Amino acid sequence: MKISYQFFISSMVVVFVGCNPQNKTSETTKDEAKVAPKAITFSDFKKIKGVDNVQEVPFQLSTKLDSVRFFVAPNKDSAHLKIAYNKFDNYYGFEEFDDFYSIHYSINNTISNSIEAFVLKSEFTAAFDLTLEGVDLYKIRSSIFKESQDLKNKSFNKYGTITEISEQEFKTASKKRIDEVLVKNPQIKLKDGNWVYTENNKERAIIQHENVSTEDGQLSNEYIGHSPYLHLEVFKENSVEVADTYYSFYNIKSSTDFSLYTAGYPQILPNKNWISWISSNNDVGSDFEISIYSEQNFSQKNLLYVNFANFKIANETKAFWADNETFYAEVYPTNSAASKGKKQKTAFIKIQLKSDLF
User: How far is CA 294 from the centre of its chain?
Assistant: First the structure.
């Protein structure tokens, strides 16, 4: 009995030890089968019409990754396809989820071959979330210095420095601005579609381009304000058919034909005889210009023009000079855009001209 009992116990141990590795192998195989991703292609995604009008796209997406993942559903466990990033591809965002954006994507940029896919927020940035982080603020496309054009130099460091600053620094500096504040002249009123200047009960229509049809389209004017230093009235002129907007300066008490104008909201520095402006460029980035005003012949001469490449102007009217070399502006990254219920992220810059530049 003793020998038989020991044999029985030994047999049980052998069976127990022998079965255990087999169970582990079986469980591991089941786990691997459970998480193994399904191989998919573009044909597994929902076919859609595709985007033929970019203006109807709620928001656009961009990425800095070399490759991105397209999911068939807004779920990290759903099947997905990894594709190489192509700078010519467009990622049109249409809906936002907790961790995903839904996009419309045209395969090989063929609108008729478009799909709906879901991409991770961690791999893309929506246009309304873009910031100046990593942006080269110094990059310019061209410049003009004292009427000499320069198409080779691609950096602003030839003229000064440019840095991103905090909103608080921007607000603090604005309290020390030295450029003129344009104030509405109460003697100028809009009457029967014309701007009229009234003095001693006598009315004089301000001759301008109000509702005059030109080769650039139909023009309209908005009164901006009076410049005490220049003794001129400033009007914003724009066309309903073209994107260009400019500001004209009028002497309402003289028939002199002034040639003064700016392509953006004017900042006027009386102590330097400067008229400057900064505005978004319809093509690339934004434009910054400084000209000097000559009272003798009522004209302006260009001192500096720069086409910055990597940012647009958020609000021209908020730009200002804090001293003769330091200029501030509110900006957005070049590809930034608002969306329904989403505002663009505002940034602030400080432009410091070289003290001996002019």
Answer: 35
Judge contact between 321 and 155, C-beta under 8 A: no
237 closest CA partner among 250, 254, 252: 250
Q: Rounded to 5 degrees, what are φ and ψ at 265?
A: -55, 125
How many contiguous H segments (helices) and E segments (strands) does the chain have?
2, 27
Q: Choose between 340 and 305: higher pLDDT.
A: 305
- Measured torsion, CA atoms of residues 30, 33, 34, 37, in degrees rounded to the nearest 10: 170
The 10 Å CB-count burial string (b at 16+, else e) for 106-132 is beeeeeeebbbbbbbeebbbbbbbbeb
Element (H, E) at 68: strand 67-71
Q: Find out whether 329 and 174 touch, Cβ atoms under 8 Å.
A: no
Yes or no: say if 89 and 108 are a contact pair by the CB < 8 Å rule: no
Tell me the chain's radius of gyration from C-alpha atoms: 32
pLDDT of amino acid 9 = 34
Other Cβ atoms closer than 10 A to 220: 14
Number of residues that this document lists for the chain: 358
- Flag whether pLDDT at 80 surpasses 70: yes
Q: Which amino acid makes up residue 344?
A: Q
Span 87-101, pLDDT tens digits: 899 999 999 999 999
d(CA 246, CA 279): 10
For the stretch 245-291, pLDDT in tens is: 889 888 877 765 566 889 999 999 999 999 999 999 988 999 999 99
Instruction: Give percent above pLDDT 70 in the chain.
Output: 82
Contact 142, 114 (CB under 8 A): no
What's the number of CA atoms in the CB half-sphere (13 Å) around residue 350? 20
CA distances from 85 to 62, 91, 319, 346 (A): 10, 11, 37, 28
